[in-house]
Write a structure and sequence with these properties.
The complex is a heterodimer. By secondary structure, chain A is mainly beta. Chain A is built from no helices and eleven strands. Chain B has no helices and eleven strands. The chains are: A mainly beta, B mainly beta. The interface between A and B is medium-sized, with 27 and 23 residues.
Chain lengths: ~110, ~110
């Protein structure tokens, strides 16, 4: 189907530790996978994205990995800081379809 | 300043009273979209538009209408609001959703229908 399953729904980690959020999809035509961060009371903002022609992409403390065979992709945040606390959404898109399907969101809390 | 604006930001209304939420972007984006955000359900697409006079249904279009008469504006219309349309609504825009650019979201409109 079209849904994207995102896990876990909530995640609490100690400051400085790593956090991993995973999303799975079933539509093999999907080829674009962005991650959005939504701080409390704010709008979602893109933090990193990956296309299906690469397996990993990194931007400072944030990385995304994609396993096309298993149809899952993950967000990795290393050396977590209090400002990383937010709700994170994964999404999948299909080139040319002009549509994104979002996961249910993960509320990440960084404990000092 | 490049931005997506929405009005109103907060609205409390009664069942059946028609309302419009406006959305405007100043980035000359071709693609615009409306989402609703509900707890545990993430962001679900209501309608989208790939250009002026071109609109299409998203995943949850029932009870909503849109129009795209100008490139910068993409209003969301609720002809007869019902309590199950109580939600947080986001408008978003991009040059090209998949190929070129990220989606920029507006600040959100919190709608309560009693």
């Amino acid at each position: 189907g079209e849904n994207v399953e995102q896990h876990p729904s909530t995640l609490s980690v100690q400051e400085g530790d790593s956090a991993v959020i995973k999303c799975t999809y079933s539509d093999s035509a999907s080829n674009y996978f962005p991650w959005y961060k939504q701080e409390l009371g704010k709008r979602p903002q893109l933090i990193i994205d990956i296309r299906s022609n690469v397996g990993e992409k990194k931007d400072q403390r944030i990385a995304v990995t994609l396993n096309k065979t298993a149809k899952h992709f993950s967000l990795h945040i290393t050396e977590t800081q209090p400002e990383d606390s937010a709700v994170y959404f994964c999404a999948r898109g299909i080139q040319g379809a002009q549509k994104l399907v979002f996961g249910q969101g993960t509320r990440l809390t960084i404990n000092p | 300043e490049a931005q997506v604006t929405q009005n109103p930001r907060y609205l409390i209304t009664v069942t059946g009273k028609k309302l419009t939420v406006t959305c405007s972007q100043n980035m000359n984006h071709e693609y615009m979209s409306w989402y609703r955000q509900d707890p545990g359900l993430g962001l679900r697409q209501i309608y989208y538009s790939m250009n002026v006079e071109v609109t299409d249904k998203g995943d949850v279009p029932e009870g909503y209408k849109v129009s795209r008469k100008e490139k910068r504006n993409f209003p969301l219309i609720l002809e007869s609001p019902s309590p199950n349309q109580t939600s947080l609504y986001f408008c978003a825009s991009s040059f090209d959703l998949i190929n070129r650019d990220e989606q920029y979201f507006g600040p959100g409109t919190r709608l309560t229908v009693t």
